[in-house]
Amino acid sequence: RRVHVMEKSIIKIKSMSFRYENDYIFKDFDLEIKPNSFVCIIGKNASGKSTLVKILEGLYPASGYINIDGYLLNNFYLKKIRRSLGVCFDNPELHFIGETVKDDLAFSLENLEYSKEEIESSIQNISKKFKLDNILEKSPSEITESEKEKVAIASSLIYNPKIIILDEAIHKLTPSDKKLVFKVLLDYKKNEKLTIILITHDLEDTLMSDRIIVLDKGKIILDDTKEKIYKDEKLEKLGFTLPFMVKLSHNLILYDLLDRVYFDEEEAIDKLWK
User: Fold this and answer.
1) What is the pTM of this model?
2) Which of 27, 128, 181, 236 has the highest count of CB atoms within 10 angstroms of its CB?
3) pLDDT tens across 107-122, in order?
4) At what angle do helices 116-130 and 175-192 cross, to 10 degrees?
5) Nearest to 123 by CA among 158, 90, 148
6) CA-closest candidate to residue 16, choices 29, 2, 31, 4
7) d(CA 11, CA 5)
8) 243, 207 in Cβ contact below 8 A?
C-alpha cells in the first residue's frame, strides 16, 4: 500500500481536529500550502498558531488528514517528515544542544549520518551565509540573543529541509541580522525551492511573504496575498498594527499621491518623485 503520493501541496490538512482537555483548539480545520511559497501565519495569543506548529512536527497528535511532503503524518513516516521539515521555536536557548556553536550546527547532520567531510563543508557553507565564522568556537553563553537566533535558524536549514517553519523565531534579531536572515531565506526559496512558513505577531515581518493567513481561535478568518489583505482595513479592525509602509500608502492613496499599497520604501519613493 503506497501512501507516499506526490501532493500538489507540500502541506495538506483536511478536517483536522485537536483538543486540549475538553476544549477544541482546532475543529474540522483545513489548510493547504504550496511548495516554494512564503506564507505568514498571524494571530493574537491563543489563536492556535504554536499549536499548529507542534501538530505538524508530530509533537501533538491530532485527528484528520495531514500530509507533509507527500507523507501521511503518523509514527511510521515521522522520521521522513522531520527530514523535510526544519522548525525553529521562539526560544533559541531550546535549540542549543552542543557546547559550542559549531557542535550545535553539526548535531542534526550527525543524526542524519553525514560523513565528517560533509559535516565540515556544510558548516563552512552555512556559517558564511549567516556570518557565523567568528563565533563557531563560542559557547551559547558567550554570544548575543540575535546571534543565538541566527544559529538556531542556521541549524534548522543546514540539512536542506524542503520546508522551514519559524515560530516567532526572528523577533530577537537585530535589524541588520534580520535583513541578513531574510536574504538567506529568500535565496534558499529561489535556489533550493524552500517553502517558508513564518509565524509572527509583528506585521512588519509579513512584507516579504506571498500569502498571509490570519488565525483566530483555531479558524482561518483571512487568507490571501499580501496585496489583497493590505488593500482593505480588515486587519486594523481586528486590532493589528499595520506595517509602517502599508499605513503610509493608505494615507497617500487618499491624497492621490500613490495608486496602490507599496511594500518597499524605495519603490514608493521612486513613485512619489516621478
Assistant:
1) 0.92
2) 181
3) 989 988 899 999 999 9
4) 130
5) 158
6) 29
7) 12
8) yes
